[in-house]
Amino acid sequence: MMSDQSTQPQGSWHWNAASRHLLIEAPKGSDHSDLAGQWSIDAIEQMFEGLSRGRLAQAFSISEGPVRCDLRLSSGADIHLVGAFISEEDAHGMLLAGNEFAEIDPSDLQPGPDLYPVFQPIISLGSGHIAGFEALARWDDGEVRNPPSRYEDEALASNMLIRSAETLSKLRESSGRSDLFMHVNLTARDLSRSTLPALVEALMQGYDLPEKAIRIELTEQAALRDESHALAAVMALKAVGAGLVLDDFGTGHSSFAWLADFPADSLKVDHGLTRRLGQHRTDTILGTLTLLAARLDMTTTAEGVEHKDDAAKLRSLGFDYAQGFAFARPMEEAAAIAFLNN
After folding, report:
1. Which residues 6+ apart lie within 8 Å of 323 measured at CB?
2. Regarding the domain delimited by 107-341, which CATH topology (the fold level of the hierarchy) does it fall under?
3. Domain boundaries defined on the chain
4. Which residue of 2, 40, 84, 181 sits 20 to 30 Å from the alpha carbon of 161, by its own alpha carbon?
5. Per-residue pLDDT at 133 exceeds 80
6. Cβ distance 277 to 131 under 8 Å?
7. Are 217 and 188 in contact (CB under 8 A)?
């Protein structure tokens, strides 16, 4: 299991280029609560060791993409700002503390023996071909493979990421397709683990996967349990190259304010809406959602599609992808490779 001794989450940060101020939120009583507050670059650099001065201004100078800045305080403690720009003026991320951000316990790279993932194809509605897969967890209980009953198991997220990256590499190699992607689900508890971005980065580098080949699915309900921390955590994942997918959109809160803040690359629309396809009001809502997503440079996936005849209608409403039993059920790795190549 991954060791959290190398880095520990200490809070979150928000950079605004217009004001050139850095807002740091750190809980009272935490090791670095003295960093909490709104700072100018000049002011906060007075707290850094000499060699670290200038790094922060350089990290924020590009105004796009990921932010990764390692700093040493004058006390000798190391901190790390990891996140990404969500616009030309604003960046968000996690504040971590520890010796080295990217340190991983080697034992964490060995997936649990009882985890038996399956993979469901995601179909491009434009071409009709497989565009990617979603990894779904199953537990091997001997004769029967069941959905996991212990979703709060700390090792589940890292094990699923490991198995998913390995399978994605095999799918890409067997098919010669460099554009394939893999969706992996994370929970709110998973986001609280400060070493998760390091694992994603290590897997992407180890399997030579391009940016956004691994796409993290996160439900809005899970994220809203601790919105500030969730936003910082997903920024850290985005900084190391993961794609971000807002799952089950159309259920629960479906907050447009959260949609504005969350730097998602894609929306997955819940089957609670897609199963009503053909109803005038539902079709109007679905068409509006896909238009909104396109304006935000996001793709859209219709979940729970049960009839192949719905593919043309979903495409006409603006959906990019579809997923469901109409196309394929979840399958084992060997079957997924065969299905892709046939």
Report:
1. 120, 121, 122, 123, 134, 268, 301, 302, 303, 304, 305
2. TIM Barrel (3.20.20)
3. 7-98, 107-341
4. 84
5. yes
6. no
7. no
